Amino acid sequence: MLSRLDDVAKAISARITLQKGLGTPHFADKRYAPKPFSPDNFRKIHPFNTDKKLAFIDAGNMEIFASPGLSVHFIRAYFCLFRNNSRIIPKTLPQKIEFFSVSSAKESEGEMQFSCSLIPAGSASKEIISEIGEITLDSSDPTISKAGGFSASISVMGGVARRFMEWLYAAKIIEHELDAGDILVRDGALVAAVKGEADFAKKAYEIAEKKGAILSACAKTSELLTTTGMPLTSAIQILAQNYKIASPWFYSPIAENNNPEHRAEIFIANFHEKSRRAFRFEIEKGAAARLTEDELGAIFGALASNSCDGPFLGYPYGLTDADAKARISIGECANYRMALLSMLNRRGRGDIAEIVSNAVDAHDVLNDIV
Asked: What angle do CA 23, 297, 255 make, to 5 degrees?
């Protein structure tokens, strides 16, 4: 086995060797026009505390009941606030909202349609998610369906509900907790990838513009590549090393972005002098265009100041905190599943529920045996 792993290591080494240079940013979507790499695109970050508030938001979801035609997810979102690198208490909004999504499948005019309703886990959640209403998507919708033209699994609807809710929650945070010049950072990217998601993103953008706040996003990982197959973040880090550009820094432009569902200026940033990681960072396109160089530097400086300690050096601590508080554990999910099955039994639906869930839970049975 170890000798086979050595062969794997040789194969990886050979492929790395075959990569000819850094290349240029690669986007399969023609709405992005890549920009060539240049050392002139680096700007030094000067970390500093600021009186502006930094809000960080993340969300998670996990399926607690599944069948080919039914899916129930438990969904949680959390946000935290910092000023001068110290945590502050929100004025109005609950820091955490939790709810269940219940999705079912039904044929409509020859199409299999998924309908998803949201059930709040508390009164605070009810007020926020009531604006989403019922979500309806065709299983063949290209924004959720599988490659090769196959219909989507109904399980994707929990993630759709989470995405919609996260935009709405961000809009509420900006509206009720932030002021002009304050910054909200989402986990991930600012792309609205699912049908209907752009409506909720637009609301967040409009409120941010009205308040004069900055809507942004930072991705823990990025699948962007260069034309030589190198990870884009790695290529820019190597470019920084080649030109002896000391961390922390941020880099742009990456590409001219003409995707209306992705209203973002894309940056790559290294937030700490001792960190060997760089992250994809995005700022809403309109806001980025209005920022002066000093204002742009202030945003990255504030985030670098928030990235100086904690378990993930060089990554904003606020996002680490939001991720931890929004995360749903396997044990927690199992408890909700057991409680749900018990309630179905009391309603005389336990046997049917078990039969329909047996269609998809064979992997769980095997995992328990192992």
From this structure: 30
